[in-house]
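Table S7 (text form). Paired inputs.
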Amino acid sequence: MTRRVRVLVWHADLGAPEELLETYHQVSRKMAGTAGLLGNELLRSTTEPGTYVLISEWESLAAFRAWDVSDGHLVTVPLRRFRDPRRPGRPFDICEVDAAY
């Protein structure tokens, strides 16, 4: 059984929430139709002001990894400046779905 994968990337609005949102929309439009990508969402924290998490859903870990090493990955470069500096080292996680209802 192939498990779906969710990739979580933490971002900070750096005092420019409208710019983060517009950049997210621009990148997401370019990502539309990417093989293996099922969709994505930008969630704003209600407990940590200025904190966001971008969650993308992939049909499998293999699909995500294939995209991650391709030139298609470069489409996300404009969002990188918003990566949360309060999470040094690794501002992301890759999670396989073990169970769902």
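Next pair, protein 2 of 2.
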Amino acid sequence: MAVSGNVGIYTPPKPEESVYSEERHPVVIIPMSVKAAQGILERGTIVGKDSNGLIVPYNPNATITLSDGTTAPAPEATPVGVLVERIDTDRETTGNVLVHGVVFRERLIRVDATVDVNDLDNLAKIGIWNIG
């Protein structure tokens, strides 16, 4: 969502371009702050939040090192939603994220790998179901 004075206005994409379906279940889309300097994040990207609470690509393999030297899942290892439009993180600070509803499986993107059944299960745990 390019911010040009119309903050908070969201225009849904054409159905054939949309990552979500409202035919089966209403969707909930909310604007969220995005981490800067990540380049382009495409519509359909599964996202998580970093340790600062900013939107970043979901990465279920991300870990953090704890003070005792052990590792634990990083915050972005848990999905929080799916981007509903392409954003340029070098120019935009907010992205619209679907946090509840039905998405088209074939339109989902994982930046580091192909979306698999574990990713779909993780989305279902937060109320995002897939069809397709």
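The domain at 20-131 is CATH 2.40.300.10 (Virus Head Decoration Protein; Chain: A,).
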